[in-house]
Amino acid sequence: MSIEGSTRDLTFSQAINNALRLEMRRDPTVIVMGEDVAGAAGRAHLGLSDAWGGPLRATRGLIREFGPQRVIDTPISEMGFVGAAVGAAMTGLRPVVEIMFADLIGCCYDQIINQAAKMHYMMGGQVDLPLVIRTAYGMHGFKRSYGGGAAAQHSQTLYAVLAHVPGLKVVVPTTAYNAKGLTIAAIRDNGPVVVMEHKFLGSAAKGPVPEGEYTVPIGKAEVVRRGSDVTLCGIGRMTHVCLEAAETLAGRGMSAEVVDVLTLAPLDEATILESVSHTHCLVVVDEDTPTASMARDIAARVADKGFDSLDAPIKTVTAPEAPVPFAAVLEARYAPRAADVVAAVEGLFNSMD
Amino acid sequence: MTTSLPTLPDRDLLLWMYERMGLIREFEERLKTLVERGVPVGPVHFYTGQEAVAVGVCAALRQTDWIASTHRGHGHCIAKGVDVRAMMAELYGKVTGTNRGKGGSMHITDVRVGMLGVNPIVGMGTPHAVGAALSARVRGTDEVAVAFFGEGATSMGVVHEAMNMAAVWSLPVIFVCENNGYAQTTPVEYAVAADRISDRAAAYRMPGVTVDGQDVIAVWEAAGEAVRRGRAGGGPSLVECLTYRYYGHHQGDETHRYRTADEERTARERDCLRRFREVLFAQGIAGAEVEGIDTRNRERLDEAITFAERSPVPGPEELLADVYVENES
Q1: Where in the sequence is the domain holding B145, given as residue range(s)?
Q2: In this prediction, does ipTM exceed 0.85?
Q3: Averaged over A221-244, what is the pLDDT?
Q4: How many domains does chain B have?
Q5: How far apart are CA B144 and CA A351, in angstroms?
């Protein structure tokens, strides 16, 4: 990916904030709603507003430009406000709704999977549903600052249970650049799109971002490092783990290609299969738990459609089959690390000797 | 008859109400016959007995207003103006159906007439009405939105979330509770810890009234007041309509297992359609033309069934069509 034109360095969250701001300027039907997306709601008469700005601060400052009519703090009512966003999307708005943490989709799962995802299909295509659901997922873990140690109900990566449902698009940006481009693409999409924002990447992923509008296509994976011996397929923060592992492997004489999946549904099988067709080996790295996961879904698809390319069994490196633990020493062992990926690749090559 | 006559709507609207109530009745009775003949129309929840609610409420609306419906939604559809031919074709799973045969009874939708969908996940349509009202405000229109729901749905958290949000944001939403006494087989007095559903309104700082849901004029009056208040910026309202469904929760449900024959007979003695017809006659508002309306409704169902029978089924390409919304490139 080459970035052209005027850029500046932004964090992942700042890039999303920029995307929201540009789209709200461009299209008056775009609204933002969720818990504390501004903060201090109704206290403007006391000179108070914008007290929060969402868990990753991605919506901070928007209320000052667009006002409370379009930047709407909601009561703690995930089922209610996601449902309201569905109704608004059916009747002419393009709502961007924030579910503070991905773990909270349990509180609004019906509105996402039974309502938003299925409406266009089960209503015979008569209604568009231009709805964006943004949500923060994953764990800090390795860096015990805010958000680290959030344990089992505030650290999950629940994208597989969303990607499973036909009709929903699910994107997982990994850099400031693609966070902005995918967010704009999601807002302009006429159907429901879930944007999964990793809590750690929110502030840690920083990079050059063009000033103007641009989109990163939904449904396209990206080869972020070329290699010839093995394909490492990463999702979200795990793409960075794959890149770190690829660097270590290079030092040991192994050339790893890294594919950043970026969109979980609809999955870009072609890019993954194309990579495997010249590396002949695949390791999928996923911060999610393994059963019925994206990691195993990708593995199954490549086994089905790319079997002839493979020289070795597909490996997955995932979180263990357990909830996220609190204690730092346990949490640190939970998500895959670069060393785990390197070990998986070395194990793969050893098995082929 | 306790209808408050001084506020009767004009004659055209009265006749429209009669025609719509009759059309709903005819649709459901004919559908029941089809079900009994074994025509595969999928699961259906008959609206028979409750016609005054849908029609009384929708008589107070404009076509540009919105309604969100329940699993028992045929009446709401017809009252809001959905074409009965397309509805019947949908039940037959035909490509000419409202939803191209991909929704069935439990998902009939026609956004062109403001009908946001029959919705069989109890209570889940209520926040859609809140969203439609929010949308109306952001878009700068004076449209209002109605959330229909049953008394059973008031046990769902989402209904309370929807009411709270509508009140917090002072949105033009009319919450219409159709209290027909039963959530499937569970009686309201068992499952709802309130004497009246309308008592719930006080908790959300909104006006709440209970009306005779078998009296279309009473429903129209209460809904009209709520609509006027909403349109004028006065926020949401709750209108509870006491009504009764004549048949089971869905086809095949045997009502004698949870209601007495006495109760059913008493309820039918207050039949909304017959009472309304009597008012029209007694007040000299309509005479022989009522027969013509009835005849026309029967013909419309004849046409609808023929249309549904003769329509093509969806082609195999429909299986994968419209999973995702098409974007202009």
Answers
A1: 8-304
A2: yes
A3: 98
A4: 1
A5: 67
| Architecture of the domain delimited by A8-210 | 3-Layer(aba) Sandwich (3.40)
Q: Which residues of B touch A123 (CB under 8 A)?
A: 99, 102-103, 107, 109, 111, 117
Whether chain B has a CB inside 8 Å of the CB on A164: the answer is no
Q: Is residue B142 part of a domain?
A: yes
User: Which B residues, 200 through 229, put their C-beta within 8 Å of a C-beta on chain A?
Assistant: none
Name every chain A residue with its beta carbon within 8 A of the beta carbon of B326: 190
pLDDT at residue B40 is higher than 70: yes
Is B321 a domain residue? no
Annotated domain spans of chain A = 8-210, 222-352
Give the CATH number, domain containing residue B48: 3.40.50.970
| Tokens 């390791």 found at | A283
Assess if residue B2 is contained within a domain: no
* B116/chain A closest Cα distance in angstroms: 8
**Which amino acid belongs to residue B284?**
G
Position A141 scores a pLDDT of 54
Query: Within a 10 A sphere around the Cβ of B265, how many other Cβ atoms?
Result: 9
Interface of A with B in 257-316 (CB under 8 A): 266
pLDDT band at B4 (very low <50, low <70, confident <90, very high): very low
CATH number for the region A222-352 comes to 3.40.50.920
Give the model's confidence band at A17: pLDDT under 50 very low, under 70 low, under 90 confident, else very high: very high
Ramachandran region of residue A54, left (φ > 0), alpha (ψ -120 to 50) or beta?
left
Non-local (6+) Cβ contacts of B212 within 8 A are B2, B218, B219, B241, B242
**Confidence band of A58 (pLDDT split at 50, 70, 90):** very high
Catalytic residues of A: 154
Alpha helices in A196-268 (DSSP H): 199-204, 237-251
Per CB-CB distance under 8 Å, the chain A contacts of B77 are: none
Q: Quick check: helix, strand or coil at residue A251?
A: helix
For the segment B18-24, the average pLDDT, to the nearest whole number, is 98
Radius of gyration of chain A (CA): 20
Examine domains A8-210 and A222-352 and report if their fold is the same.
Answer: yes
pLDDT at B328: 78
The predicted model gives A127-135 an average pLDDT of 98
Q: What is the distance between the alpha carbons of residues B91 and B86, in angstroms, rounded to a whole number?
A: 9
> Do the Cβ atoms of A235 and A286 come closer than 8 Å?
yes
Judge whether B107 is closer than 8 Å to chain A, CB to CB: yes
Query: Which pLDDT tens digit goes with each residue over B92-130?
Result: 999 999 999 999 999 999 999 999 999 999 999 999 999
Is residue B29 assigned to a domain? yes
Which is it for strands A30-34 and A94-101: parallel, antiparallel or unpaired? parallel
